[in-house]
């Protein structure tokens, strides 16, 4: 120990700038806080002994990182396991089960993947170094204390779905929330004088597959995601959260009644509309991973009812001509307006030559009324000479409709991708000329090889309790991902240049065609310029104040999260204050 201290002093004397510190003025005294986080290999990186002490304080729940693709490298190589991993790597599943693995290829950065040669070592790269298999608030408090004492980075991971690199970090201690599986239904929850009714308490590790079936078996439905493996109480509801019931109940955040959290200072509190209301406001839509660590939330549930669905496809071939196909796309966008205002949502995919409406969800079981909604779509398309038959199916409840149309598509479509996102204001689609410009920008994106995956919804109803959902949601007709599956067979440099193309060319074209829009912070490009304005808009200043109040030392960092502009990655990947 003394030896280390001497080396430290020697370094300090010899290269004072190598010991990253900065002076911060506080009320009375001047304290020194380090400018950069420690990473493995640094003198100040905790010793094995210190990690073992942390392990004791979390009852043996500390896990040293072993990325799943370890089986593809060096001495741990296992041909069968590696081949299997190659086939599942682009999907959610393998990453879901791992304490440190994540879905976003750009941030995986090939440091340990199943496609690089066996002789390439498995390196941690951007993966967290250690994880705590969190079981309760004490584990989170111990983790927060440890990163504070040792000046290391903290990350929070539930499923690892995040597309913007928010659930990973070089040299981090990760809070792994996956095993918090509480699902408890209550017939009567209250929230101030404004709400009394049923709700469910959902642990941070609960994914929608689990929650949808638990709710279904009790006759309830919850405002969830279209993806069965996203976690309700992780990034989803905290970022806003959209799904097939959004035109009925608004964004998921609009239905949240309470957040059970541990703050950066270690306080275990319940943020509600009438308790820590500023934190409640920020957590409900202001973005995950930055205001506090969430243990669970309570969210409203709604009585399940029969609901209908439909799907339809048209292409340049069925329509007979490429220009007419794009006119039909414009007509289709217009036809969505009455669907969403009657409580429906439409999930659709636009590829170079086809539009696939995967699910037209209509909250109605009277087939006459369902047909009326579907006729609205067919007649708009007939106006441009495109004749379609759309036949609805009715279902006993939400889950059956979801399973019929969406679940299979969601689990069989590769999820590893390059992604940007845009909210499309309703007013643009209501205006014929503006609407054609939107279509033209989409056309340019798909002709450049990107897909466009949208959900049309109406989330305009003001929430019961004010929250930090990005205001542009309220006036938008749809949110669209502009994306491309990550091709692991292509040279890495080619995928990096596709990412550049998205940032430099494709997104600016879409933005130019969608004035007044913005982007859903959970489905967006991590390289988005002016992300504060584009993801948070007018909410940003207040969100930043709340961030500084509840996390004054800025322990919780996530790419593009509120407050993250105070940090930047140095060339070796460590986070440093800017
Ligand atoms: C295939 C796919 C489909 C999707 N479909 C939809 C959809 O239909 N609707 C929709 O709205 N979104 C959708 N998303 C986006 C999704 O909502 C976000 O990726 C969301 O952040 C995922 O949250 P997570 O906790 O599951 O993932 P993670 O990657 O584990 O976490 C995401 C973020 O939340 C933080 N976080 C996680 N847990 C906690 C916690 N307990 N406390 C504090 N911070 C935490 C992480 O630090 C990170 O910043 C989809 C994403 C993918 C990849
Ligand atoms: C933490 O302790 C448990 C139980 O003793 C042990 O199995 C685990 O390997 C330890 N974790 C680390 C990182 O050493
Ligand atoms: C990826 O790894 C290389 C080194 O192999 C590094 O130079 C680069 O900065 C890393 N990129 C990211 C996004 O981490
Ligand atoms: C994490 O903890 C849970 C119990 O909460 C246990 O079942 C599981 O095996 C642990 N996982 C790992 C990887 O240690
Ligand atoms: C449309 O839905 C039916 C189930 O109702 C399904 O069999 C069919 O494959 C779907 N078609 C498309 C194009 O998704
Ligand atoms: C459909 O699009 C493809 C690819 O752009 C093109 O080759 C084909 O000629 C088009 N077909 C029609 C009928 O427009
Ligand atoms: C279905 O809706 C139509 C049109 O509103 C109505 O005339 C009819 O009575 C309804 N049928 C049932 C069974 O409710
Ligand atoms: C629509 O269905 C009707 C009756 O089933 C059929 O006659 C017609 O050809 C169909 N039209 C299309 C475009 O498939």
Short recap of the structure:
With about 575 residues, this protein is α+β, with helices and mostly antiparallel strands. Helix content is about 35%, strand content about 20%.
* Overall number of structural domains: 3
Work out the helicity level.
25-40%
Number of continuous helical runs? 19
Bound molecules: flavin-adenine dinucleotide, 2-acetamido-2-deoxy-beta-D-glucopyranose
CATH architectural category of the largest domain: 3-Layer(aba) Sandwich
Shape descriptor: globular
Biggest beta sheet attributes: 6 strands, antiparallel
Could you tell me the CATH topology label of the largest domain.
Vanillyl-alcohol Oxidase, Chain A, domain 3
- The termini sit apart by 31 Å
Radius of gyration (CA) equals 24 Å
Mean pLDDT: 94
Just give the CATH class of the largest domain.
Answer: Alpha Beta
Poorly predicted runs of 5 or more residues: 1-32
Side by side, the strands of the main sheet go 15-17-16-20-21-19
Binned strand content: 15-25%
Structural class: alpha+beta
Count of individual beta strands: 23
Features of this protein?
Vanillyl-alcohol Oxidase, Chain A, domain 3, binds flavin-adenine dinucleotide, single chain, six-stranded antiparallel β-sheet, Uridine Diphospho-n-acetylenolpyruvylglucosamine Reductase, domain 3, about 575 residues, five-stranded antiparallel β-sheet, about 20% strand, disordered N terminus, 19 helices, alpha+beta, about 35% helix
């Amino acid at each position: 120990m003394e030896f280390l201290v001497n080396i430290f002093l020697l370094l300090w004397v010899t290269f004072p700038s190598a010991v990253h510190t900065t002076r911060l003025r506080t009320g009375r005294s001047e304290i020194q806080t380090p400018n950069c986080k420690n990473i493995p290999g640094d003198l100040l990186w905790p010793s094995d002994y210190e990690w073992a002490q942390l392990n004791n304080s979390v009852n043996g729940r500390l896990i040293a990182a072993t990325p799943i693709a370890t089986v593809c490298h060096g001495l741990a190589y296992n041909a069968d396991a590696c081949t299997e991993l190659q086939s599942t790597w682009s999907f959610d599943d393998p990453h879901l089960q791992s304490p440190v693995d994540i879905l976003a290829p750009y941030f995986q950065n090939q440091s340990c993947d199943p496609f690089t040669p066996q002789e390439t070592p498995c390196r941690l790269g951007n993966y967290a170094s250690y994880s705590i298999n969190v079981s309760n608030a004490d584990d989170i408090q111990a983790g927060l204390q440890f990163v504070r004492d040792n000046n290391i980075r903290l990350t929070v991971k539930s499923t690892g779905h995040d597309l913007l690199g928010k659930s990973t970090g070089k040299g981090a201690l990760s809070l792994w929330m996956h095993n918090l599986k509480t699902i408890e239904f209550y017939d009567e929850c209250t929230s101030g004088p404004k709400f009394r009714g049923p709700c469910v308490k959902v642990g941070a590790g609960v994914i929608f597959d689990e929650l949808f079936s638990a709710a279904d078996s009790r006759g309830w439905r919850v405002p969830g995601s279209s993806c069965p493996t996203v976690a309700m109480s992780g990034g989803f509801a905290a970022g806003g959260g959209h799904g097939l019931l959004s035109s009925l109940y608004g964004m998921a955040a609009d239905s949240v009644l309470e957040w059970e959290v541990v703050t950066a200072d270690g306080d275990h509190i319940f943020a509600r509309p009438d308790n820590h209301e500023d934190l409640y406001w920020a957590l409900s839509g202001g973005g995950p991973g930055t205001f506090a660590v969430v243990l669970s939330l309570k969210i409203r549930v709604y009585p399940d009812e029969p609901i209908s669905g439909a799907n339809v496809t048209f292409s340049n071939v069925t329509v007979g001509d490429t220009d007419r196909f794009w006119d039909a796309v414009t007509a289709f966008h217009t036809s969505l307006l009455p669907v969403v205002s009657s409580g429906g949502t439409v999930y659709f995919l636009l590829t170079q030559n086809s539009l696939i409406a995967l699910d037209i969800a209509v909250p109605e079981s009277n087939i006459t009324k369902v047909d009326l909604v579907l006729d609205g779509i067919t007649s708009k398309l007939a106006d441009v000479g495109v004749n379609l038959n759309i036949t609805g199916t009715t279902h006993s409840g939400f889950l059956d409709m979801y399973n019929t149309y969406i679940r299979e598509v969601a689990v069989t479509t590769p999820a590893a991708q390059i992604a940007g996102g845009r909210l499309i204001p309703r007013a643009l689609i209501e205006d014929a000329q503006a609407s054609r410009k939107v279509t033209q920008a989409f056309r340019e994106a798909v002709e450049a090889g990107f897909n466009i995956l949208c959900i049309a919804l109406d989330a305009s109803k003001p929430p019961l309790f004010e929250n930090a959902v990005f205001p542009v949601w309220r006036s938008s007709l749809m949110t669209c991902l502009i994306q491309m599956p990550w091709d692991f067979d292509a040279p890495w440099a080619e995928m990096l240049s596709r990412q550049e193309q998205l940032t430099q060319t494709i997104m600016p074209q879409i933005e130019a065609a969608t004035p007044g829009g913005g982007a859903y912070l959970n489905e967006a490009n991590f390289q988005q310029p002016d992300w504060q304005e584009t993801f948070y808009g007018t909410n940003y200043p207040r969100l930043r104040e709340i961030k500084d109040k509840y996390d004054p030392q800025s322990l919780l960092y996530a790419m593009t999260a509120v407050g993250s502009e105070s940090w930047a990655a140095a060339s070796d990947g460590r986070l440093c204050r800017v």
